[in-house]
Every structure is written in structure tokens, then in C-alpha cells.
Amino acid sequence: MDIQFDDRVKQRSTSDALVWLASRQAFWVLLAVIFACIFLSFATNSFATSNNLFNVARNFTFVAVIALGMTIVIITGGIDLSVGSVLCLCSMVLAVVMHAGYSIEIGIAASLGTALVVGAFNGILIAYLGMPPFVVTLGMLSIARSLAMVLSNNTVVFQFGPDHDKLLALGGGAWLFGISNPVFYMLVLAILTGVVLRWTKFGRYVFAIGGNERAAIATGVPVRRMKVAVYMVSALSAGIAGVIQTGWLGAVTTNLGTGMELQVIAAAVIGGANLAGGVGTAFGALIGSALIEVIRNSLGLLGINAFWQGVFVGSFIIIAVAFDRLRNFRQPG
Questions:
Q1: Based on the structure, what is the number of domains in the chain?
Q2: CA 124, CA 285: separation in Å to the nearest integer?
Q3: CA 229/CA 231 separation, integer angstroms
Q4: Any residues with CB less than 8 A from the CB of 174 and at least 6 apart, and which?
Q5: CATH number at residue 314
Q6: Is the residue at 38 inside a domain?
Q7: Residues 204-213: pLDDT tens digits?
Q8: Global confidence as pTM
Q9: CB–CB of 246/171 below 8 Å?
């Protein structure tokens, strides 16, 4: 009897685990990525090559890093449209400071400090003045890019002073086990984000605000301070991506990051983040970013016009939202 009972418990546990897994949007997106990779490996001669896979893994990291911060914002029920311009501004601050002869440490500190100031500005307007996140961050999208143009006099910066080679190695090297440095940074940041969201008071507060802001206020959650912190994290993620991308590209232009906010939001939503708030994971942000990059890469390999990329990405966003709506309809109550 005990053996039969144990077997039934194990079967039920396995069944519950499968049901839980099937209800996760990130799981289905992961299957889509795997299926696409298998299909492209047979449909093309160049997708499965080491060079192409290396490029795919490296290219999607910049969107993924920012998507981690964007996911936290979306979980609270907010949105940040300024991340592409913030990336450009932080990259330009890094480039100009290093071009002036300062060390890479000072350049990175100035760049990330700029990101935190921008994020705090967004958060204060949203949390303390009650301005809509869409309006505030849309305004910052224009302000940050304009400041990048003023800072550089709208020129390309490609000389980074005495630490020029250090910066290129930081973004373009592969220091551990042949893994591209951007990929390594992304994985570390994803693990950190996942731990923070899952096991810290900060993460619990983020989900509480997105789930029911009024209830969060009633239970003593410092909602205003949390919102400021969340937008600072979002801007910081854009700043980090800007530092990495500057080292990878070896040059900074004022059109860097143009339209990137849409890719980032798409990656977060495709990965399972709910624009209404309360739902989102670090893993989902990575998988959503990976799917977008696989789509972009596959269009060229299959000889499809790159202009179709928006159609595919937009379709996946609609499917992701529809999946979430269907899941909500199926839940009791």
C-alpha cells in the first residue's frame, strides 16, 4: 500500500510540474527558439556554424541586458521608452570622457552615474508627481538623445584615450572558456536579477506593486521609493549595455540604440511579462531576446527582406498577449 501511495504521489507531482511548465509562456517561447534553430540548421548551410552561433549569442545580449531592467519596470505596471536613448547617452559619456584622457574606470563611473541620474529623474516624476510613465519616458527618449548630440557635437567618437584597448577587450573579448564577454555579463546579470526577484524583499515589493498598488500601499510597501528605484535599475541596465556595446563596436554615433526600446519591450512581453503588471521573469527576458535575434538572423540566411522583421516580431507580441489573455480566461474567477 505504501509503495502504491508513493507512486501515486510521484505521478501527481510529475503531472502538476508538467501542467505548471505548460502554463509558463517562457517555456513555449523556448520551444519556439529551439524549433527555429533546428529548422534553420537544416534549411541553411551557415546557421549552425560556430561563427554564426557566436554572433547570434553575442548580438542578442545587448537587448537582453536592457530587457532585464525593462521586465522589472513592466512587473510594476510601468513602461520605459527612453532606454534606447539612455544607452546612446551613456555610451557617449563613456566615449567623450575616455577620449579626453581619463581612465576607463572614470569613464564607466561617469557613464553609469549618468544612467542612475536619468533613472532617478524619470522615477521622481512618475512616483512623486504622478505623471504617466509613457509621457515621462517618451520625453526622456528625446532629451537623452539630444544631450548625446550636444555632448559629441553630433560626431562619431572612435578614439578612447590611453585605455582604448582595455575598452575594446572589455566588450569584444572572450576571457572565460571562449565565451564572448557580453554573453558572460548577460548571464551574470540574469542570475542576479532572477535571485533579486525571487528571494529578496525588493522583488516581493516589485510584484506587490504590479499586482495591486493600493493593497501594497495599505500593507506598508514604500511604493514611491520603489518606483524610483525601479526606473533607476532600468536606466542602469541601459547604461551597462551601452558600456558593453561601446567596447564591442569600437565607436559611438548619435544614432546608437535608435528604436531599441521597441525591441526591448517586445523581448520582455514575448518572454511572459504582462504589460498590466504583476508578471515577469529574468529567464523570460532572455528567451524573448533570443527569439528576436534568431528571427533577425534567419531572415538574411533565408534570403528574406530584412524589412519583414517587424512583421514577425509584431506577430509574436500579439501571440504572446493573446496567450496571456487565454490563460486568464481559463483561470477560475
A1: 1
A2: 26
A3: 6
A4: 180, 181
A5: 1.10.3470
A6: no
A7: 999 999 999 9
A8: 0.90
A9: yes
